[in-house]
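Kindly draft a sequence, keeping tokens residue-aligned:
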Amino acid sequence: MRLVCHSTEGSTEKQEIVVAHVTTGCQSGYVCMVFYRRDGHVIELQQSNKWVRVPEEACQPQTFNPVILPYITLITAKPHLRPCPYLGRYIVTGLSTRPSGGASVVSDTETSITQCSDLQFQSLTVGCTEVNTMQFHSSCSVAETSTYSCHGSWEDNGTNYLIASPTSRKSVGARRFCFIYMATDTATAAGGDGGGGGSPLQVASVAESCKRNINPASSAEWAFNLTLNGT
């Protein structure tokens, strides 16, 4: 696929709308691409899934509908460390994982895979050792702690998103995850770089890109609830 920028349709501090010409084999057309600036070096992209012959039609509502188009999360090859949101100590409850398998926050040893297949972590500490790390503490003796580095967070329509990467992973494991924080009815979410956050929180984790309107039971790699247990 070959993509060439054709024109800029609109630009703000947080958003850039671009019409691009796409060529694949003998087929070509114009698409609309919207880039969203998130936190620092993190951006998100939405792209129309229909090609049009006239560039002026690429970003029209009948071609580009941001409500239904998925987001693609982009981050630099060597991501910088950023402060994690929701600093504090949390109790983990209601843990569920996707039946088909997925991300594991226990260690990568064969023993831990056998003995800790249910992802038996009980608590989460955010920013307690370093402001840009969060640690899952497991009840399994062979995998006491798994550490993630934070690379950027933002809020969109009342939901908070965090890009984080495991400090160690399998060669076939995801290089990064998007943690999606949703406040429950009794919580007041407090995003940002240093907030302690409300409690409780519902959290879902997906690999690579940050999905919207996610159903944790079917779409998330794993999902759980967090209750604040100290700062």
The longest strand covers residues 145-156. Confidence is low (pLDDT under 50) at residues 100-115, 186-197.
